[in-house]
From TrEMBL:
InterPro entries: cNMP-bd_dom, cNMP-bd_dom_sf, RmlC-like_jellyroll. It comes from Flavobacterium procerum. PROSITE patterns: CNMP_BINDING_3. The lineage of its organism: Bacteria, Pseudomonadati, Bacteroidota, Flavobacteriia, Flavobacteriales. Pfam families: cNMP_binding. It comes from the Bacteria. Coiled coil: none annotated. This is Crp/Fnr family transcriptional regulator. Residues 13-113 form the Cyclic nucleotide-binding domain.
Length: 191
């Protein structure tokens, strides 16, 4: 949890007692590969931190699944729209490998904020992270080619190509796996 302590102290300017109070409210969930952290139709009541493993968020229709986010080590994880609205989520969050998630429930977090408004800094930090990631992805789909979206993915999730299968990366980019292979080959050839 050293990385989380650094966020509290160095990035947010909070004090050690804030980190300790937050840490004391954390619960742990261990997932096996292919197990769900949350399923479509459930209401999300937590914000988690990936301590180990990797997860994907996806939406599904009758024909296919579409990856819309990845959560690697030290990422905050949540079906955040559902968390904020307390309405059922339209996504699934599934472990791509065995994973350990440390999380705090909505009621626990609200209680911390009620007791000390300094925790609003953390709430804003988390909210900003989710918002910026979603905006970048949306803008990327509207403005960029598949090759440029791949480059953005590599910047957003360093090392993801070693962590996540090409099939899931292609789904996230909105292309077929064979198109991803072609883009990567052309990029390699043009270096």
């Amino acid at each position: 949890m050293e990385f989380l302590r650094k966020i509290f102290i160095e990035e947010l300017g909070l004090e050690m007692h804030h980190f300790e109070k937050f840490r004391d409210n954390i619960q742990i969930k261990v997932l096996k590969k292919k197990e769900f952290l949350i399923k479509e139709g459930s209401v999300c009541n937590f914000i988690g931190i990936v301590v180990s493993g990797k997860l994907r968020s996806y939406v599904q229709n009758e024909d296919a699944e579409f990856n819309n986010d990845f959560y690697l080590k030290h990422s905050f994880v949540s079906a955040y729209t559902s968390y904020l609205t307390q309405n059922p989520t339209n996504c699934n969050i599934e472990a791509l490998a065995d994973a350990e998630i440390h999380y705090i429930t909505l009621s626990q977090f609200d209680k911390l904020i009620e007791e000390d408004f300094a925790f609003l800094k953390l709430a804003k930090y988390i909210s900003d992270l989710f918002f910026i990631r979603k905006c970048r992805r949306e803008t990327s789909f509207l403005k960029n080619s598949a090759k440029e979206r791949l480059q953005t993915l590599y910047q957003t999730y360093p090392g993801i190509e070693q962590e996540v299968s090409q099939y899931h990366i292609a789904s996230y980019l909105g292309i077929k796996p064979e198109s991803l292979s072609r883009i990567k080959l052309l990029t390699y050839i043009n270096k």
